[in-house]
Amino acid sequence: DTGVSQDPRHKITKRGQNVTFRCDPISEHNRLYWYRQTLGQGPEFLTYFQNEAQLEKSRLLSDRFSAERPKGSFSTLEIQRTEQGDSAMYLCASSFQTVTTGELFFGEGSRLTVL
Amino acid sequence: KQEVTQIPAALSVPEGENLVLNCSFTDSAIYNLQWFRQDPGKGLTSLLLIQSSQREQTSGRLNASLDKSSGRSTLYIAASQPGDSATYLCATVGGSEKLVFGKGTKLTVNP
Description:
The complex is a heterodimer.
Chain A: E1 5-7, E2 10-13, E3 19-24, E4 31-37, E5 44-50, E6 53-57, E7 65-68, E8 75-79, E9 88-95, E10 105-106, E11 110-114
Parallel strand pairs in A: 2-11
Antiparallel strand pairs in A: 1-3, 3-8, 4-5, 4-9, 5-6, 7-8, 9-10, 9-11
Chain B: E1 4-7, E2 10-14, E3 19-25, E4 32-38, E5 44-51, E6 56-59, E7 62-67, E8 72-77, E9 86-93, E10 99-101, E11 105-110
Parallel strand pairs in B: 2-11
Antiparallel strand pairs in B: 1-3, 3-8, 4-5, 4-9, 6-7, 7-8, 9-10, 9-11
């Protein structure tokens, strides 16, 4: 068990470019979450999948953001037409149980810098 | 809307000291409260999870308490060590799959 894996760990891009992040959850976990964390702040919820179904989305997830989990395993988070305000750490987490009863396991994050 | 506050924002202590980190929340209708540790530039590591029906949880030198009625939780660290230096975040879970985090307390333990 290698834990939650995220790729790439760092991404520097120019404003207006598209970026995609990948998350591989712990293998037996059917729940997958994306959070965003800016400097000096706590993580903010973006979206949640149970298997391949996207069940909850934050208002933070604008039209430029899209997340998928096509086969209920890995997930991708794509940001189109990046803006400087998108610069943040994007954290993926997974769990076997609902977070109302069980722990959440986070990956190391993907840090995005938009120039 | 749930708001989670952590005080102090930063704390510096000498090695060996016992310390308490505070977390307060505005909506007491929570399922649980979780404490995490975050090292610089890294992801979050779960430390303790307290269900709403529990008063406290312990793991090694860590003890977390929960008082739902007053909207408060504390994380007690005994005999602090330099390796405990990190940012500590608390998060509440309400009626959805979303965790609501505080901004964290940055702890520095000086040798």
